[in-house]
Input
Amino acid sequence: MTNKHVKNSEYVEINEFGKRCGETHHNATLTDHEVELIRELRFNHRIPLGVLAEKFETSVGNISNICTFRRRNQVMTEKRPTRPTGGSSEDV
Output
């Protein structure tokens, strides 16, 4: 499954345990902004889970987990540069 929402970045967000979190996690399907918007729409405007799932092109279960803080509940403690991809930069 291709992650169509999250763009490649020059950094990754790291939690207190040194693990990737937020939109830079390899399994993320929503941006940090989209997660904040989902929670705002659910809590402040009482938008149903099914409507949010359809709007953000994800499952009702994913929306439910976001709104109950079972997903995307970690706090970023630092940003680290990403590792370069590809071969060595030295000429052989």
Remarks:
- The chain has a mean pLDDT of 81.
- The radius of gyration is 16 Å.
- The chain has one domain: 16-81.
